[in-house]
Amino acid sequence: MSLKNLGNVTYYNLNNEINIPVDGQIPLNKDQEALAAFIKENVTPNTKQFSSLRERFDFLLDNNYIERPFVEKYDFSFVEKLYDYLKEQNFHFKSFMAAYKFYAQYALKTDDNDFYLENFIDRAALNALYFADGDEKLAMDLADEIIHQRYQPATPSFLNAGRKRRGELVSCFLIQTTDNMNTIGRTINSALQLSRIGGGVGISLSNLRGAGDPIKGIEGAASGVVPVMKLLEDSFSYSNQLGQRQGAGVAYLSVFHPDIIQFLAAKKENADEKIRLKTLSLAVTVPDKFYELTEDNDDMYLFSPYDVEREYGTPFSYVDITKEYDNMVANDNIKKTKINARELEDEISKLQQESGYPYVINIDTANRDNPIDGKIIMSNLCSEIMQVQTPSVVNNEQKYDKLGIDVSCNLGSTNIVNLMASPDFGHSVEAMVRALTFVTDNSNIDVVPSIQHGNHLAHSIGLGAMGLHSFFAKNHMDYGSPASVEFTGVYFMLLNYWTLKASNEIARERQTTFHNFDKSDYADGSYFDKYVKNDFGTQSEEVKQLFDGIFIPSTEDWAELKAAVQKDGLYHQNRMAVAPNGSISYINDTTSSLHPIINRIEERQEKKIGKIYYPAPYLSNDTMPYYKSAYDIDMRKVINIYAAAQEHVDQSLSLTLFMRSTIATGTYEWKNGRTDKMTTRDLNILRHYAYNKGIKSIYYIRTFTDDQDEIGANQCESCVI
């Protein structure tokens, strides 16, 4: 028997029986039966056996399955001690989907794919040993966090840790173009290289001159951004890891760029094939000025990036459009085009209804809240990474006259339900920060020097969270209720506090801070003022009980942390970001990210397998009333939850909005007396609401149509935790 010849198995049928009610009840026991059958029929007979742990490691090392250097940093007696501890924890998957996903996508297999070479304990052990880098105490701490599923490294880190033939530990990147052919060529090469190593790539095109701008004095010569987007899309399609996965990229453009209408039109279903973008994602950067113009129903001007750069001496992305708008309008040296702001806003909403795109980045909000010296100009493929960048200057030999700063994403996630049960919340977070620090310290993306340069200067990480709806349901809280919003704020305040503590401790140990720390709001102390002046701790009795036994920092504790950071600095330029979660949330037996569930029994179409059903975590008659579908929740409640978290997150959060084509009566008061169909007006109102709540980014708009289809339900496979 082998994985290629499983024979007659029962677990798929058992799992599918979950979808067949018995006496009006969901037969959740069928999921447990499917889990037991999967372990018995699939895992146990097809896992390669060894007589001892030593024999197993020798086999893996001698046959080039795992790297030797990190193992040899430990005495093997410690490795045995670590395994003894992990086995004592009696880990078991709680659902069929969790076990299936782990063994299908994460477990190391023999080269012929006939047998499994590891279980969850083995993967946890290799992650702990690898990220601890020879530190026995940290290895034990990380093993404790991972086996209890309080911490989940991002998919590329969790999957590749310790493997000899592995991909990169990071997998999401941000790069930018400047307005010349050399940089465009370098950008296309970077897209090819990053897609080859497994990356989802965000690319800012806002600096490129618009269609019709002059080239070497010839008016009308420039082709604009859309042809460059086509080149990038073809690059991602070509560089697809030997056909194993589709390359993934997103193009960013300012709403004040003169090509914005063509940019949006290229994604429409009826677009001409010469310009239509089938796989490249779209995102727009939106300054405050756009919201002001749409609220006042004013016309707006689109500005030539070529002229703006000549007038201001800096690329278009780095000009504060809100601040300079009136000056740019009055400047006759800047070519401009007038359109109606609300008409553009409607075009954005129409495309979101049709495709889920574009993502929306509230760029002034991001920069207003940015404690780092420099300017944020874009985000990543999943809209949660926001870090400062600087442009590069590339010469005719495709070499750098000036090496700028670009970004790689280094992510991990807390499991909210399990971290709330940690014996020491702060110690858990410190272990996670140290694991993420290993990844950033050992990431070396030399094929794109600007990304390598940015990572070496910033040491940035992104710790986030998953399982918020699980926590609410388990604790009988309605998603979006005042108590749930309060809980979210306190939880992320704690993550902020403890990641700052850990980063400060690492800076003190290494006597090193991130580049330009002395120019940051951390160094002058202003970042901490709101925490020193205001109590962000628990307020209601309900939330106080949830945090019973967990240390909540007082204003005095924040004042002490402020002094410590001003004295010794921070190692990490950025510390927190909340990404979307893919299959890894199933392995954690929790709901993904911070958003509500879609269905109490989720139906997933698995390649070559068919449908698999996944009951929401902790689903029972007791918790069922608290598992309301995202499509049936007022999206302002979701925005309020994300805003409570955003208050304490230095980067951003992947916020998806869920809409029905036909909206239930009473959901939104502005629908009263109007059509019950979703309109562009609904999306416009919600975007303005999110903007006014301090939301930095909106990821997909997912629409559940009247014919039971989903629009905008694409999964970001590159940046998922």
Automatic annotation (TrEMBL):
Q: Does the keyword Disulfide bond apply?
A: yes
Task: List the GO biological process terms.
Answer: deoxyribonucleotide biosynthetic process
Please provide the record's keywords in A-Z order: Allosteric enzyme, ATP-binding, Coiled coil, Deoxyribonucleotide synthesis, Disulfide bond, Nucleotide-binding, Oxidoreductase
- Can you give the residue ranges of the Ribonucleotide reductase large subunit domain? 558-580
UniProt-listed Enzyme Commission number(s): 1.17.4.1
A Pfam family annotated for this UniProt entry: Ribonuc_red_lgC
Residue ranges of the TM segments: none
Chain segments annotated as coiled-coil in the UniProt record: 327-354
Q: Name one GO cellular component term.
A: ribonucleoside-diphosphate reductase complex
Domain of life, per the record? Bacteria
* Keyword Oxidoreductase in annotation: yes
Spell out the reaction equation it catalyses. Answer: a 2'-deoxyribonucleoside 5'-diphosphate + [thioredoxin]-disulfide + H2O = a ribonucleoside 5'-diphosphate + [thioredoxin]-dithiol
**From the UniProt record, which GO molecular function terms apply?**
ATP binding; ribonucleoside-diphosphate reductase activity, thioredoxin disulfide as acceptor
Task of the protein = Provides the precursors necessary for DNA synthesis. Catalyzes the biosynthesis of deoxyribonucleotides from the corresponding ribonucleotides.
Q: What family does the Swiss-Prot or TrEMBL record give for this protein?
A: Belongs to the ribonucleoside diphosphate reductase large chain family.
Please identify the protein, giving its name as recorded: Ribonucleoside-diphosphate reductase
Q: Which organism is it from?
A: Paucilactobacillus wasatchensis
